[in-house]
User: Fold this.
Amino acid sequence: MSDFVEEVEDQLRAERYASLFGKIWPWFAAALIATVVGWVGMWGYQAWRDRDIGAASITYDKALTALNTGDQLGAYNDLAPIAKDGPPGYKSLALMTQAGIRLGAGKTDEAAGLYDRAAKAAPNEIFGDLARLRAAQALMDTAPYPQILTRLTPLIGTKKPFDLEAREALAMAKLQAGKTQEARGDLNAISLTLGVSPAMRARAQGVIALIDSGQAGAVGQVVHAAATMPPSVEANAAKLLGAASAPGPTPDGAGGADAGAPPPGSAPTSP
Assistant:
């Protein structure tokens, strides 16, 4: 009798397991399919992204070569596809380089607009603040002081990647607005800041000397020259693409506005 009861129990248990498996199997199959599809999708996206980055790198390198040979129109046109649809890092960099070309041609408003577009397309704070700084510098000679103040103030702070550069630009804007002594105090503070580059310290001390000698009006030429410099910072920003996931650069240091540009043949490696 006991054998018969055990046999019945085993049969009932097997039926329950079969019923449970029938209920669970569709969900298990769906989860398995979703996992496989997700993995394939991620692999496909990564492959597409790598191809997109590689194409942008080649195009950007071509534009740099044209720019270094003096073909500004060719460089500008080469950058156009990246500036429109490139990966975020390259798109922002292409727009900044285009802005530098327009600024060198005296098209200040167009340059500022391109810098603003670069800031919106920026993949991180470093690229965004660099573009915003450049836009403010481009407008220094034409925009009223309150507008320059509004643009530069958000870029200033101990944790901001271009704090010193923004403070220097704001001091120059104050000087142009007739706030001579306030500007002198800001420049003196910059020159005494720990970690400031020799180039920036020399500029600050040079402008202070002009102020003290009564030649503050000549500073406008310095501001204009700084704003229309070749886009070495934008070229150097290519290095920042590879370090976008790392901590930000030391202000005015290796990744700051006084950093040198990479060799003409170098190109970004990561967006």
In short: The chain is about 70% helix and 0% strand. Confidence is low (pLDDT under 50) at residues 242-271.
